[in-house]
Design brief:
heterodimer; A: 305 residues; mainly alpha; B: 102 residues; alpha+beta; three-stranded antiparallel beta sheet
Chain lengths: 305, 102
């Protein structure tokens, strides 16, 4: 009777994605418990132990939650490390010969594309990583949360990793494309750094992929960025804008804010208001496109609210 | 009473382990006997609670070979501090409830 019960528990754990050491430990402890409790009868011991499905779901939900949260911290650590290296390498460009004409690279058609990639992808990675960290921090005390919430956490982390990977590839291609215009030491340093930085990204990717199993069986919605930043959206002047019900209004306001920062930054950096307007306009358009393409994936908006 | 035990299972398990290291069955047995049978929860649910407490660093565990091989759980220093904190919180809650109900 005990063996049958343990087989059923093993099958339940397996179906919920609890494998290997975790499953072995649960089964070994359950066997020890049941054999000791069996002095009062096997059936009574199994009745008192509880429902296989309920116990399996509790264990899976908690493992899924803690695993996904830990993976998110790993991903953010990797993104932060790569981000620092990325900023450091770009900061060295002026010392390596200065920013080249974007159309003057070895492969003229590639230069502008690389410029756009180097501009947009790090920002996508930064926003995705921060959103993932914010959600993980919000859930830091939760023992178990819904599968939808964990999926959102993993999607945010995955987008952050993908964008960072893309930025590294773009940086390596940039070094190759402008190897004549820029100093050789910068090219070699960048190439070596790009190769080295794939290690933390790969480690974080493996952690993230592994966190998809076990499965949290609980239902419930994932919520969106308006839940993550609830105190901000409850602030009276902001609340009156009804942004959670109108996410595109939120996107438009964010685009205006980003445009203003871009204009000020461009004007300051280039000493020319025209350059600032171009940069600010590009930032705003990029934000709106990213909101349209990645809004639902990153939980910036939901289908219905 | 069983529902209340499920809600407060972490505190109950920590409190049980304060008397000394125990394996899962020992924890369940102690809970039942100390509550005079009132906390008769589904015994298997104590294991998710033990795993959760271990992940939080409130207990540690290892396999030990005595009469039989079993996983034995112990309170950590962090667990003792958590128990003290939760016990104070619980006592405040009980006093407040008693004041209202009286």
């Amino acid at each position: 009777v005990i063996d049958e019960f343990l087989d059923e528990l093993a099958a339940t754990l397996d179906a919920l994605g609890v494998h290997d050491r975790s499953a072995h430990r649960v089964l070994a402890e359950a066997r020890d418990h049941l054999e000791q409790a069996a002095s009062e009868g096997h059936d009574a011991a199994i009745d008192r132990f509880g429902d296989v499905d309920e116990i399996g779901r509790m264990i899976a939900a908690e493992l899924a939650t803690s695993g996904t949260r830990a993976a998110t911290y790993w991903v953010f650590g990797a993104l932060a490390l790569v981000g620092l290296a990325f900023v450091g390498l770009l900061a060295l460009v002026p010392a390596a010969g200065g920013w080249p004409d974007i159309f003057a690279g070895r492969f003229s058609a590639v230069g502008p594309l690389l410029g756009i990639a180097l501009f947009v992808l790090p920002q996508v990675a930064f926003v995705s990583g921060c959103l993932a960290l914010l959600r993980a921090f919000r859930l830091r005390r939760a023992s178990s949360v819904s599968d939808a919430e964990l999926s959102l956490l993993r999607r945010r982390s995955a987008v952050g990793l993908a964008a960072t990977g893309g930025a590294i590839v773009a940086l390596a291609l940039f070094a190759l494309d402008f190897s004549v215009e820029l100093a050789r030491w910068w090219g070699w340093t960048t190439a070596a750094a790009c190769v080295a930085l794939t290690v933390p990204l790969a480690v974080a990717s493996v952690r993230l992929a592994r966190s998809a199993s076990p499965v949290a069986p609980g239902g419930g919605s994932a919520g969106d960025v308006f839940d993550d930043l609830a105190p901000l959206f409850e602030f009276e002047p902001v609340r009156r804008l009804y942004l959670p019900a109108h996410p595109w209004r939120f996107a438009a306001l964010s685009a205006v804010a980003v445009a203003l920062v871009g204009i000020a930054g461009g004007w300051y950096a280039e000493g020319d208001p025209g350059s600032g307007i171009v940069r600010g306009g590009f930032e705003a358009v990029a934000l709106l496109i990213c909101f349209a393409v990645l809004g639902r994936t990153l939980g910036l908006r939901q289908s219905k609210r | 009473v069983r529902d209340a035990a499920n809600v407060h299972v972490d505190l109950l398990v920590l409190s049980t382990l304060q008397s000394g290291p125990a394996h899962g069955y020992g924890v369940v047995d102690a809970l039942r006997s100390r509550s005079e049978g009132a906390f008769d929860l589904a015994e298997g649910t104590v294991y998710p609670a033990l795993y959760r407490l271990e992940r939080k660093g409130f207990v540690t565990s290892r396999w030990e070979q005595r009469a039989r091989r079993r996983r034995v759980y112990r309170l950590t220093r962090k667990g003792v501090a958590e128990l003290s904190l939760e016990r104070d919180r619980w006592e405040r809650y009980v006093r407040a409830m008693q004041a209202v109900l009286a």
